[in-house]
Structure formats: structure tokens, C-alpha cells
Amino acid sequence: MSIPLTVHTTPRPTVVPLERGRRGAEDGPIIRLAALRAPLVVKLFGANLLVVALLVLALIRWTAVPTGALIGVAAAVVALYLVLVLVALRPIRDLENAASRVWHGDFGARVARSAFADRDVVRVGAMFNTLLDGLVSDRAKMRALATEVIAVGDRERAALARELHDSTAQRMAALLMQLSAAARDAHDPALAARLAAARDAAAELTEEVRLLSHTLHPRVLDDLGLVPALEKLARDTADGSGIRIDVNAPRGVSLPHGAASVLYRVAQEAVRNAVRHAAPRRITLAVTVDERTARLQVRDDGAGFDLAAADRRRAGMGLLSMRERVALVDGQLHITTAPGSGTTLVATVPLASEDDIDFRRVE
Q1: Rounded CA gap, 254 and 360, in Å?
Q2: What residues contact 88, with CB distance under 8 A and at least 6 apart?
Q3: In the chain, which residues fall in CATH 3.30.565.10?
Q4: Quick check: helix, strand or coil at residue 247?
Q5: How far is CA 105 from the centre of its chain?
Q6: Could you tell me whether strands 244-248 and 282-289 are parallel, antiparallel, or unpaired per DSSP bridges?
Q7: Beta bridge pairs of residue 248
Q8: Strand, helix or coil at 231?
Q9: pLDDT tens digits along 182-199
Q10: DSSP string over 264-289
Q11: Start-end of H helices in the chain
Q12: Would you say 248 and 287 are in contact if contact means Cβ atoms under 8 Å apart?
């Protein structure tokens, strides 16, 4: 006896490609209410213009008033109404203008009192001004705190750099001299060779300590100013990397310590990033100073990078730290780069007053 075998098959679902599904959804009926997204002035004026037009048409049809006179009266009414609408909505435009100024970085913008504003608009403007006052106060506190944090960090680095230079490096130099004398006086060739190797290692370690001291806080920046510090940065970087680094700057200008420190740190970070990531053949540092601002330009002919992608990724804090340092002194930082076209960085910092610049000749 044979038993019939029944096989149940489940129909395979129809797979709709994702892109086609999206296109199908987008191709559906979409209601676009553009009229509702129009400015308030346009909506009010349009609605009342429609009412006036219907009224004029009704009067033309059902009365004996001349058509020209009706159209003239309607035009005068519409013009008067437009003026009244613009005057009535002026406080709202003031709110919008203040918000736009704040959005573009003008935190001193405030909503002025208006004789045309009602109580609700006045209350909104007062609340807006109160929020801005609080925002400005918080920004000032945060800026003061960040400035103090950076200043404390700079002081600690300066103290550590002095300790390395004045104590550790000096002791290493004394050890180097003792090893040199011991290697010179040793009669056993094997012992002399070992002492010579120890002497060479001590010499390399002494140079590394001195380089670390300069990297932490260049004393030349405190002693001679920004331009000599940039020249030393260029020499030290070129000796270790083989890259040509030029410094174009006036020799007879002395900047305030705060501005000089910010520009030096920006140059240091920009040169370090170029050497590590861009493989340039040449880097140019240019400093220009006028009565109100000091400007540093760092340009390299390296590989460049995608600035937007770097900002999104934020794998390193170099760009962020440069922007924060410049922003703390109310300066501006602009970076122009693209893959394969090199990088140009421009940092501009304001000088507090003309007295902060000392145009002395450096002999």
C-alpha cells in the first residue's frame, strides 16, 4: 500500500530592492503646502488681498459705482493695510534679526524695546535678552576657567622644562664627562669599549632631555620673543626630518607674551602635524604684525587632508586645541586644505592696545 506524500511549499516572499522601495515611497503623492510656509507678512497680506478682491468684484457686479473708482479705493486700502502690517510685525522682525546675529556669533545682540510691540512680544524679547545675558555670563566664566587652565598648564610645563634643563640635563652632562674620562683612562680595551658605548648613550640621552625641555616650554620664547622661537623650531624640526622650513618675519617686533605664546603653540602643532602626516618637502612660517593684530601663516606642500572628515572623526585633538587656544584670545583660525594640495593655516590674534607692541630693533 502506497502512502501519498504531500509536500507543502511556502511561496517565497517577493524581495523589493531597498532603493526601489525608497523611490516608490518618494514617488507617491506628496502634499506640499508651500503657502503655509510663506512668511507671516505674505500670508496676512495675501489673505486680506483676496478678501478685498472679492469685495471689489461683488461691488462691481451688484452696484453702479464706476469700476475705476472701486479699483483705486481698493488699491489705497491695500497699500494702507500693507503699511500697517509691516509696522505691526516690526517687533517680530527685530526678534528674528537679533536671533540671526546671535547665530552668527554676535553675542552682544539684544532685542530693542519697540513702541509697536504688544505685551506678549515684549515679554518674549525680555526673556530672549535674559537668556542672552546668562549665555554671555556663562561664556565669560568658561573662558576665564579655560584661560586659567591653559595658563596653569603652561606654568607647569615651564617649571618642568626648567627642571629638566637646569638640573637633569646638567647632571647628565656631568655623567657624560665622567664616562668620557673613564673611557679615556681605561687600559682594558673591552672595558674602554663598554665605557665608550655608555658615553655615547649618555650623550644621546642628554640631547633628548634638552629637546624635551625645549618642546615642553621654549625658553627662547620668554627670553627673545616669537620670531627667534619660530626660527629655533624650524632648525630643530629640519635637522630631524630633512624638511626645508623657512621663517619670514620682521626681526624688530616684540609681541605681548599671551599672543606670542598662542601663535607659537599653533605653529608648533601645525609643523608637528605636517611632519607626521603630510610628508611635505617645504614648510613656510610667515608672521605679520600691524597696530591691532598679529597674524601667523603656516603653509606646507604636503599631502593635505579632508578637513570636514577630520573634524567629524576628531581622532586627534590637534585641530581642536589650536582652535580653542586662538578662540580664548578672541582670535580667528582658518585652515585651507584638500587631499593632494597641501595645507595653509592662518591664525590671527588681536593685540590689546598699541602699547602692547614694542617696535625695538633687535641687535
Answers
A1: 7
A2: 116
A3: 218-363
A4: strand
A5: 12
A6: parallel
A7: 286
A8: helix
A9: 888 888 888 888 988 988
A10: HHHHHHHHHHIIIII--SEEEEEEEE
A11: 18-26, 40-62, 67-88, 90-103, 119-163, 169-185, 189-216, 219-223, 226-241, 257-273, 307-313, 318-328
A12: yes
At 65 the pLDDT is: 60
Direct distance between the N- and C-terminal alpha carbons of the chain, in angstroms, rounded to an integer:
119
Distance CA 149, CA 277 (A): 29
- 358 to 24, 191, 227, 257, 314: CA distances (angstroms): 70, 58, 14, 12, 39
State pTM to two decimals. Answer: 0.57
What's the confidence (pLDDT) of residue 116?
A: 67
pLDDT of residue 239: 82
What are the phi and psi torsion angles at 362 (to 5°)? Answer: -90, 110
CA angle 206, 162, 181 (to 5 degrees): 30
d(CA 78, CA 48): 8
Phi, psi of 87 (to 5 degrees): -65, -40
**Angle, helix 189-216 to helix 226-241, in steps of 10 degrees:** 140
What are the CA-CA distances from residue 12 to residues 15, 16, 19 (Å)?
9, 12, 20
Query: Which CATH architecture best describes the domain 218-363?
Result: 2-Layer Sandwich (3.30)
Tens of pLDDT, residues 277-327: 888 999 999 999 988 889 999 999 988 888 877 777 655 557 777 888 888
Per run of 10 residues, the mean pLDDT along the chain (length 363 residues) is: 42 43 44 52 66 69 66 73 73 81 79 74 83 84 74 79 82 87 86 88 86 78 85 85 88 79 90 88 92 91 82 65 82 88 91 47 34
Rounded CA-CA distance 297/291 in Å is: 18
Distance separating alpha carbons of residues 250 and 227, to the nearest angstrom: 8
pLDDT at 44: 66
The label of the residue with cell 554671555 reads: 136
**8-state DSSP, 293:** E
* Whether the Cβ atoms of residue 136 and residue 106 lie closer than 8 Å to each other: no
β-bridge mates for residue 358, sequence order: 254
pLDDT of residue 286: 94
What pLDDT score was predicted for residue 353?
44
